[in-house]
Amino acid sequence: MKIEAIDLFYVALPKIERSADGTQDSLVVRVRTDNGLEGWGECDASPLVSMAAYVMPMSHSNIINIREALLGETLDSPEDVIRLRAKAGEYGLDIQQLDHAVAGADIALWDVLGKHLGEPVWKLIGHDASYKKLPYASVLFGDDPAETRSIAESIIKRDFRAAKFGWGPMGKGYLEDDIALVQAARDGLGPYAKLMVDAGVIWGDNVDAAYQRAVAFANLDVTWLEEPLRSEEVGAYKELSDRVRANGISIGIAGGEGADFYRSADDMMTNAGLDFVQIDVGRIGGITEAKRVADRAHELGIQYVNHTFKSHLSVAASIHVFAGYEEFDLTEYPAGESPLILGLTEPTGIFRDTDGFVRASEAPGLGVEANLDAIRQYQRHVKMEIDGQALFKSDEP
Amino acid sequence: MKIEAIDLFYVALPKIERSADGTQDSLVVRVRTDNGLEGWGECDASPLVSMAAYVMPMSHSNIINIREALLGETLDSPEDVIRLRAKAGEYGLDIQQLDHAVAGADIALWDVLGKHLGEPVWKLIGHDASYKKLPYASVLFGDDPAETRSIAESIIKRDFRAAKFGWGPMGKGYLEDDIALVQAARDGLGPYAKLMVDAGVIWGDNVDAAYQRAVAFANLDVTWLEEPLRSEEVGAYKELSDRVRANGISIGIAGGEGADFYRSADDMMTNAGLDFVQIDVGRIGGITEAKRVADRAHELGIQYVNHTFKSHLSVAASIHVFAGYEEFDLTEYPAGESPLILGLTEPTGIFRDTDGFVRASEAPGLGVEANLDAIRQYQRHVKMEIDGQALFKSDEP
Fold it and tell me: What φ, ψ does residue B33 adopt, rounded to 5°?
C-alpha cells in the first residue's frame, strides 16, 4: 500500500495550567493509505513546534520536512517502517525537533501496517509473546503530606498495586519535608503496594542531596528514585549510583525520559549507572527507536520501563515496545482524570485485567482506536502562512 | 536594563536547492532593551520550527516558549545571561528544538550586554585575550575531481592557507573515487595548504570503510577526517579512532556538529575518541553552552573548532567562544558566495588580516552588525494563527 496522507491534530483542554501535568494537550497523528486504512499515533511534545517539523519549507538537503519524507511511500512490511523512519531521520538530520515530531508518524505507521497485515504491533517488531505488566498509577505529589496521603488512598481504592508520585513540592524544601511527603505516600498506599518517587531533576548536579534522599526513601521501601539529577549530569548520576550500591542502599536509580534519541538513552544506560531506563515512545522518535533501546537494555541487564503521560494511543504503543520481555514487568500507567486524554481513545484502551495487570493487545495494529468526536471537541485549529501563501491548515478529523 | 522585545527574522534565498548548503536561509534574532540597545544572533536551524519554539502555546510547566522566559527580564551582567539561558532551558525542558532555537537569543543577549558594558563578548565570557585563528575555507566537493581541483585552485587564489571539502560525491562511489576527489583537492591546493575532509556521516556505522579512507587520506596529508560515521555511533567512532592511533596513521578524527546540547558534545569528547570537536554555536544553544564545551575540550586536550555555515553573526559568535585558547588555532570560515549570507552583515564582518588570520573583535558585543536592508530584501513573512487568533506575525526590521 501507499501512504496517502499524514494528518495532524492539535488537541488541548480549554485552559492550560502551569503544572507538570502533560495530559493537558496532545499532538495526534493519523496516517491514511491508498487502500482505505488508517493508523494512529501520538507525540509527547509541543504540538505547534512538532507540526512545523511536518510542514516547514526546506532549508537544505538535511532540513526537509517529515511529510515530504513519507508521503507517497510504499508500506507493506516491517522493513518498510524501519526504512521510512530512517528516511525521515536523514531528511530531517538537522531538525532538532525531528524525533519528538516523527514519533507520532512512526507509531501510526506501525498501527496501519498491523491492520494491513492482521498482526499486533508487538509481533511485527519481533516479539514472540505479549507478557503481562504491573501498571503503576503515575500521579503528582499533593501540595503537602495530607493531600499526598489522600491521593495515595484513592489509588488503592482504585485497585492499583503500584504507584509513582512525582514533582510538586519534592525537593523544594528541606530533607525532612521530602521524607514527610514520601512517608505520606507510603502510609496512604499501605505496606504492600510498590512505591516509586520521581524527583523531576530537582537536585541538578548535587549528588549529596540526591544520595540523602536515596537513603531515606529506601527506608520507606521505595523501588526507585527517578530523575534525582538533570539528564545531562551523566557523571553525577554514575557517582550517585555507585555510592548507592557501595553502601548497600536498597533503591534503584531511574532516568531516561529526557532521551530524545537512541544514543542519548544508550549514553544514560552505558555511563550513568541506571537500574531502570524510562523511555517515552512519543519523544524518542516512536516505536522503532524505543524498541532499539529495549533490546539494548535487555543486553545490559537494565530494566526498561515506559514513560507515558498521554492518551491510551501512547500507552498501547509503549507496551508493544517491550511486550515480549517478561523481565520488564512494570509499566507506567497514567491515572489522571484529564477528560481530553481519557476521551481521545474512548471506548478503547489498555485496561487492567481482574488481577490488575495489563498487556499489549492481540488485535491488529496498536489495538486502540482514536475517538474522532473527542478530536473534534478539543481540536485547536492552526494556520501557518508564508509570504501570504498557506503552508498548513489544520486537518479535518 | 530590561529585555523589551525579541524579534525573529526568517530570511531565505528566493529558490532553495536540495544540496548540503546551509547558506540558503537563516533565522536571525534581535533582542531590544529598554535603553534603546539592540543585540543580534543567528540560529543554524529550521527557521519555522525554531520560530514556533519562541511563540507556541504552553503545554505544561516544562513546555513554555522562549519569549515567555526572556521578555521583561533584567540584563546587566554575564551572570544574567547565564541565568536567563538556564531559565529558557527550564521553561523549555521538554521542547526538543529548544537548543537550536534559543541559540539566536543567547548570542543576541551576549551582543547587547557587550554593547551595554562596552566590552567584547570574549571578555564577558571569561577570556583574557583574543588570539589569532587560521581560517579554513569551508566548501563542498565538486561533482567530480576536475571540478574539485578547480574549486581548490580558486581557494588558493583567494589567499586561503587551509580548506575543508565536504559532502558531494564523497563516499557515494568506491574507495578509489573518494581518493581521486581528495587527491584533486590536494593538487589544487598545492602541498603547503592545510586540507580537511568532511565525509558527511556517509559510512554510517561501517568502521572498516571509514578506516580505509583515514589511511588513504593521511597519505595526502589530510589534517582530519570529519564525520566519517553517524553521530550516534559513538562506539564505532571509538573503534575507528583507536585503530587509527594504534596503527600510527597521521590523521585526526573530527566530529560534533550534530551535538545539540552540552552533554551530547561531552559524550562525543569522552567516549568517541575525537581529536577535534566541532561545535555549532547556532545549534548547541548559543555562546553560553558552546563555551562550556570549549572549556571541557581544553581540560581533555581535544582541539575545539567551530562549525559555522551561516552569516558573520555566527562567525563572530563562534570565534568569541574560543578566542582566549591559543591552542585552538583553526576556525571554520564560510567561503561560499551566498548573497543572502554575505549581505546579512555587510559591510561588517570578521575579515582576514594581511597574514591571513582572523580574530575576535575588540569592539563591544560581537563586533559585527546586522544589515537591515538585507533582512528586508530576503525576509519571508510568516503568520501563525490558532483558533482564528494571531499567534505570530513576522516582525518589522
Answer: -115, 165
**CB distance from A227 to chain B under 8 Å?**
no
Residues B70 and B142 in one domain: no
Q: pLDDT 10s per residue in chain B (397 long)?
A: 999 999 999 999 999 999 989 999 999 999 999 999 999 999 999 999 999 999 999 999 999 999 999 999 999 999 999 999 999 999 999 999 999 999 999 999 999 999 999 999 999 999 999 999 999 999 999 999 999 999 999 999 999 999 999 989 999 999 999 999 999 999 999 999 999 999 999 999 999 999 999 999 999 999 999 999 998 899 999 999 999 999 999 999 999 999 999 999 999 999 999 999 999 999 999 999 999 999 999 999 999 999 999 999 999 999 999 999 999 999 999 888 899 999 999 999 999 999 999 999 999 999 999 999 999 999 999 999 999 999 999 988 9
DSSP A23: G
With a CB-CB cutoff of 8 Å, which residues 278-337 of chain B face chain A? 283
Domain count, chain B: 2
Q: Does A13 touch chain B (CB under 8 A)?
A: no
Tell me the Cα Rg of chain B.
Answer: 21
Q: Is B140 exposed, middle or buried (0-12, 13-18, 19+ CB in 10 A)?
A: buried
Which CATH number covers residue B10? 3.30.390.10
- CA-nearest residue of chain A to B285? A96
Q: Which chain A positions have a beta carbon within 8 Å of B59's beta carbon?
A: 12, 16, 22, 24-25, 46-47
CA distance to partner chain B, nearest, from residue A186 (Å): 26
Contact (CB<8Å) A24/B59 = yes
Cα–Cα distance measured from residue B26 to residue B370, given in angstroms and rounded to the nearest whole number:
13
Indicate if A212 and A337 belong to the same structural domain: yes
| A18·B61 Cβ contact <8 A | yes
Residue A364 counted as domain residue: no
User: Do B267 and A262 lie within an 8 Å CB cutoff?
Assistant: no
In a domain, B252, yes or no: yes
Which chain B residues contact residue A20 at CB under 8 A? 60-62
Task: For residue range A123-159, list pLDDT tens digits in order.
Answer: 999 999 999 999 999 999 999 999 999 999 999 999 9
Q: Taking CB atoms and an 8 Å limit, are B231 and A381 in contact across chains?
A: no
Dihedral class, residue A317 (left if φ above 0, else alpha if ψ from -120 to 50, else beta):
alpha
The answer to whether A49 faces chain B, any CB pair under 8 Å, is yes
Give me A199's grid cell: 524527583
CA A172 to chain B, closest CA, distance in angstroms equals: 15
The boundaries of the domain holding residue B234 are 134-343
pTM of the model: 0.97
Indicate whether B183 and B90 sit together in one domain.
no
If one counts every other C-beta atom within 10 angstroms of the C-beta of residue A272, the result is 22
Are the beta carbons of B263 and B232 closer than 8 angstroms? no
A353 part of a folded domain? no
User: Contact at 8 Å (CB) between B309 and B327?
Assistant: no
The interface pTM score, or ipTM, of the predicted complex is 0.96
- Chain-centroid distance of CA A83 in Å reads 23
Contacts with B17 from chain A: Cβ below 8 Å? 60
Rounded to a whole number of angstroms, the distance from the CA of A130 to the nearest CA of chain B is 30
Q: Are residues A235 and A267 in the same domain?
A: yes
Q: Do B262 and A232 touch (CB under 8 A)?
A: yes
